[in-house]
Amino acid sequence: MNNADAIWDRTLEHVYLTALAVGIGLVISLVLSVIALKWRPTYQPITWVTGILYTIPSLALFAFLVPVTGLSVLTAEIGLVSYTLLILIRNIVTGIDAVPVDVLESAAGMGYTQGRRFWDIELPIAVPVIITGIRIATVTVIGLVTVTSLIGLGGLGFFILRGLQNFSSPIGTTQIFIGTILSVVLAVAADVSLAGIERWLTPWANRGAAE
Amino acid sequence: MRHNAAVSANSMIELSDVSKTFRGTDSPAVQSLSLSVEVGETVVLVGPSGCGKTTTLKMINRLIEPTSGSIVIDGTSVTDLPAHELRRGIGYVIQQIGLFPHRTIRRNIATVPGLLGWEKGRVARRIDELAELVDINPDMLDRYPSELSGGERQRIGVARALAADPPVLLMDEPFGAVDPIVRARLQEGLLSLQERLQKTIVLVTHDIDEAILLGDRVAILNVGGHLEQYDTPAEILRSPASPFVADFLGSDRGIKRLSLIPIRDIELEHGPVVRPDADAEEIERVMAATGVDWIAVGSDGQLDGWTPGADVRSAGGLAGVALRPFETTLDISDSLKEALDAVVSSHTSVAAVFEDGRYLGMLSIDTISEEIVQ
Q1: Is some CB atom of chain A closer than 8 A to the CB atom of B86?
Q2: Chain A environment of B97 (Cβ under 8 Å)
Q3: Are strands B329-331 and B217-222 parallel, antiparallel or unpaired?
């Protein structure tokens, strides 16, 4: 049966496009966040630019890019990555800002250098907030990947598009169903897995207080 | 340049003409402060808000850099090494403690040894030592800070500061965030720790009573870091150097002095005590001789109780008279301040003193006030 193969291929494509976008987005966001944290005045402009990118309708963004970068994975990724930046940067900076002042002070007082303190103390404590950002970004990107069906990709969105094109026939309805339901399943699965990863990474966040 | 000519050979921390003016402010937070801390002594910096006590403390480990002046620890200027290296050799405890929430207690305590590159076996042995020293239940070691109570976290904070066995310990209002009962226990804990370890401690507090309790010497600071008086608690209480100091000590200065005198140090009165077989005549005699109208009954280091003279007279003796227990009793290790409280709240205007359950004598208000008037 060719259909099962097709569905599997498209699912893999969907996962690949998502993982790539969120991965690259995370690296860029970490760099921009460190810049924003070290030089506070840059935070506003960074948020402003990534905010604008976020508000551009995805279809329009892809349409703009196609003449430049073609109907390619690159086009899709440029678009998808730009949508992750606002969320990830906001969450990374907020997460680091939320580290209690007394923790920072005691770390400095004990002899941590600024750099080591960032990696050993601030970042790990900010992990729950950062992973929340990653979850939101991932689910958002999974949704946006379906739009890339209009530039020849789409992952599971491929079936949704096909289904819409075959709307009058029964196979159309089936295709829309499969595309939609599997996209949702993928989003839920990603969200739950990331939540699980968060719990695994932060055994300290779930313990109760003795007082 | 040293202005303090009389530098003792035992000086561990030496502040010379240290000043700090924060950017954007006109008046200095600390102005030309010179202070010397000896090896193994506990010095408490105390004063009202804005007196620069915390700023001074933080200049010792360079969390704040002085605008001018020099600070020398154990013969080395604090600016001779990078700040983070300096701090790894100084224990630091703050009011909110700042335990790392994402690490177990064990890893929290092992922080500085980790930064110093100690090998694992040495760290493990040190943690066992500290658990015993600061009275930490080994079960606690694998828990996270969020699971501990305030008092437990405080003790972990102290253990963490002592982990690499630094000679100097800096403490910034370490007991301010807990309730009075826990605070008293923590203060006791620090005192017995010092008896064993003899660290050089600089402690900041706004509480004069805590300063008197914990300090070998107390530095009273006024706004702008002006050193008003720097002496032992007993000396400061006996003779405050200025109206500011007298004011800061409070109007109950005499009573505070009492808290520094243990009952052990003074001579107790025998008190109006008779054996259970005493007759009415003897009882009247003893009461008259002591100048009171009540009698205590006991023998061989045991006190059975007391009864008013009236009850003895109407019964014609002790037979059938119900003895009342002494409501407040003191241990010989208590201070005269506790004695005064007991005396003032008792029916008999005296307090009975015991050691391990054995009756030793009594304290009256006259004996107590004699100690202050001296």
Answers
A1: yes
A2: 102, 106
A3: unpaired
Distance CA B309, CA B284 (A): 8
Quote the CA–CA distance of A111 and B82 in Å, as a whole number. Answer: 10
Q: What is the DSSP letter of B335?
A: B
pLDDT, tens only, B197-227: 999 999 999 999 999 999 999 999 999 889 9
Q: Which residues of A touch B99 (CB under 8 A)?
A: 103, 106
Tell me which residue of B370, B334, B336, B338 sits closest to B354, measured CA to CA: B334
- For residue B94 the two structure tokens come to 């703050």
Contacts of A110 in chain B (CB under 8 A): 87-88, 92, 111-112, 115, 160-161
Q: Nearest to residue B60, comparing CAs of B200, B250, B209, B176?
A: B200
Question: How would you write the pLDDT of chain B (374 residues) with one tens digit per residue?
Answer: 333 444 556 789 999 999 999 998 888 999 999 999 999 999 999 999 889 999 999 999 999 999 999 999 999 999 999 999 999 999 999 999 999 999 999 999 999 999 999 999 999 999 999 988 888 888 889 999 999 988 889 999 999 999 999 999 999 999 988 889 989 989 999 999 999 999 999 999 999 999 999 999 999 999 988 999 999 999 999 899 999 999 999 888 888 888 888 888 888 888 888 888 888 888 888 888 888 888 888 888 788 888 888 888 888 888 888 888 887 788 888 888 888 888 888 877 788 888 887 888 888 888 888 877 76
| Cβ–Cβ gap B88/A107 under 8 Å | no
Q: Do A113 and B84 touch (CB under 8 A)?
A: yes
Which helix (DSSP H) or strand (DSSP E) does residue B91 occupy? strand B90-94
DSSP string spanning B147-204? GS-HHHHHHHHHHHHHTT--SEEEEESTTTTS-HHHHHHHHHHHHHHHHHH--EEEEE
Question: Which amino acid type is present at position B327?
Answer: E
Nearest partner of A121 among A147, A150, A101, A143, judged by Cα: A101
Is the four-CA dihedral A148, A151, A153, A157 of positive or negative sign?
positive
Q: How far apart are CA A25 and CA A90, in angstroms?
A: 13
Positive or negative: CA dihedral B257, B261, B267, B269: positive
Q: What is the rounded CA–CA span in Å between residue A191 and residue A134?
A: 9
Q: Do residues B262 and B335 make contact, with C-beta atoms less than 8 angstroms apart?
A: yes
Query: Could you tell me if A40 lies within 8 Å of chain B, comparing CB atoms?
Result: no
Within its chain, how far is the Cα of B44 from the centroid?
10
Q: Select the residue of A109, A110, A204 nearest B102 (Cβ to Cβ).
A: A204
Shortest distance, CA B100 to any CA of chain A (angstroms)? 6
DSSP code of residue B325:
P
The residues near B250 (Cβ < 8 Å, ≥ 6 apart) are B208, B256
CB atoms within 10 A of CB B119: 8
Contacts of A36 (CB under 8 A, 6+ apart): A42, A43, A46, A89, A93
d(CA B261, CA B333) in angstroms, rounded, equals 10
Instruction: List Cβ neighbours of A27 (8 Å cut-off, separation of 6 or more).
Output: none
CB contact under 8 A, B147 and A209: yes
Of A100, A102, A110, the CB nearest to B111: A110
